[in-house]
Amino acid sequence: MQRFTYLLLMTVLLASAGMLPAQTFDKWFLDGVMRLDLVFAGCADETTYALSGVMKEPFYSGPRTSLIDPFDYGDHKFQVRDAASGELIFSHTYCTLFREWQTTDEATVLRRSFPHVLRFPWPKGEVVVEIYDRDRSGKFVKNWTVKLDPASIFTDPVIRDEFETVNLEINGPASEKVDLLFLAEGYTANEMDKFIEDARRSATYIFSEEPFKSRHVDFNIRAVKSVSHDTGTDIPGEGIWKNTVMNSGFYTFGIERYLTTMDFKSVCDVAANAPYDQIYILVNTDKYGGGGIYNFYSISAADNTASRAVVIHEFGHAFGGLADEYFTSSVAYNDYFNLEVEPWNPNLTTLVDFDSKWIAMIPDSVPVPTPPTQEYTGTVGVYEGGGYVAKGVYRPMIDCRMHSNNAVFCPVCSKALVEMIDRYTAR
Ligand SMILES: [Zn+2]
What we know:
Helix content: 10-25%
Number of strands: 18
Largest sheet: 6 strands, mixed
Strand order of the largest sheet: 9-11-10-14-16-15
CATH superfamily of the largest domain: Collagenase (Catalytic Domain)
Strand content: 25-35%
Bound molecules: zinc ion
Radius of gyration: 21 Å
CATH architecture of the largest domain: 3-Layer(aba) Sandwich
Distance between the termini: 26 Å
Structural class: alpha+beta
Number of helices: 7
């Protein structure tokens, strides 16, 4: 009886932490991925969704013991429910480039559409997918729902862009590791040896720094030799346009260094060649730039002299949900963080609900807010300035990998990254 109570208690505790036993995966899911191709459309204050297709992909690499996302991160969340019982069987939090665009001036005068993709393990029976968007008050609000039948004849199993995948480093089964996948962008067929070399070097950058260094064996690293017609990428400010496999370019939202691709569907078509939890797009250019969006993708120039710093920084965004702690560089966003609301990112606070953040990591002798003086260099505190504004948003350390190119991750960012690695490696 005691043992039964213990097991019941453990089940409740595991369920509340989003950690469900592996048999739960087998109850609801088969191998493979159900992929919804969607279209976002809207403007600054309007988001609509429409379905453009359902694909069947071969590789689900996420943790099978943690099907419910334990982190309250992201600008969006989707949930998958068993259609018959209504039971929640999967959830995932993420951000998108569309949502960033909604904070730009252009979004106040123009409606645009962006392709989007959602992926979850292939369900055994009919499911209902619910998409939530975070509103200005910080709450997730349900925006769109669709019912899907895995037996439908309209699920397309074809990998549209078939390319060779190279295993750079395999440390264990995909379901128990963080699967990092490099994609080649702006490399021609003759430049694939360079791409593999660039991908190896970029991985070395990430794993040269804590907390990734100590957790290196918790990652698998692969690279897709995705061939482009042209070398390089678009540089609209210089009138340079290239035909590349994922349609990337500088000058996103008018910011020269902001290298991204709005064509997320092409990104996912390329990534479908291999198992992945995180996508890293390497762009064959030496021009400074990059971007990283939480559970969406990281992207950066392969050959810039600052590439090491940029690769690690962007991966911090995409993998850890970390926010920019800087506030002096120009960005295209307006009021990116609502000062009346506690941001969801683990490494920023507006002090609206600081108890939910890193308060336990601050020594008693350190004042809150903390003056950015010599005395507090290297000390966790609450320093004003972060999230693109000098006032009203606070960061955990004077300097950090998310603040400048010259620092390592602060203890608060490191803790968030470790928690994310732990989730993917839970058995
Ligand atoms: Zn930090």
